[in-house]
Amino acid sequence: MKAINAILITTIVLGMGHAAGATTRYLASSGSDQTAQLQTLINQSVPYDTIVIQAGNHYFNGTVNQPVDHLTLSGASGAQMLKLNTSSLAVLDGRGNYASYSGIYIDGANRPEPCMRLFGSNCQLVNCTFRNSANTGLLIDHSNNNNIQGCFCYYNNICGISQWASSGNTIQNCQLHDNGAEGLTIDGGSNNCQVYGNWIHANNGPQHGVGGIGIDASNGANIHNNTIDYNGLNGVTLQNNLCCGCDGVNVHDNPNISYNQNWACYRNTRQPNTNFGWSNNTCTGNGVGVLF
Fold first, then answer.
1. CATH of 24-291, one of 2.160.20.10, 3.90.1150.10, 2.30.40.10, 2.40.128.90
2. Residue 4 has pLDDT above 80, yes or no
3. CA torsion, ordered 73, 75, 76, 80, to nearest 10 deg
């Protein structure tokens, strides 16, 4: 027993020592382009360090590349990362694995490219805001097993959150509203996505897309306990623009899939939708019907 306790104590001390050696760096607000300044702070960082974006406005004309594993990038209350209206680039590329992004606020200034692109896996994005992109708020690309929680994505011209070839992601307790095509896409082999507790509202107003949630060539999406309402066209669409269809999509226990322009859930028949589940959803006032 004493030997076991000694091992446990040694493990705890080593863990505490590793955390104690971490460094916190700060980015103060500025009225000029801070792309290079934030990049320098990231380049100086090692795993388990933290960078705090301090309160105030921060302007970016280029893309900040974040390749560090286990890095925390945190936005203080009142911190805003703003794309300059001359920029055609994403503000932030998250390439590190097991990275954490908390309270990050990015305004895309209605310029091309997403506010943020996530390429790393096993990351946490909590209470972040991505708005006003002429493209997509948050693009998740070949990026797996991430937890996107409590985020706000709105007023983006295409999608609030878009996934491509990205499996095992969880989208929970987010607000995805007033985006031009879809609130959320699950596309191109983005398998086993968990979607719950979200408010997906009034997307596809300009009729650029299919509605609240679009699923294409992806299997195992589990969509439950969401409010999906007032979207143009459909609440949920298995659209199948790509080959291969969808297998094992389960839409269940959603308390409100209502007042969407056409169907609560539309299953396009261009490709097969096999092992589809639909149960215990409350659907009211959809323009055409509940399930196609």
1. 2.160.20.10
2. no
3. 150
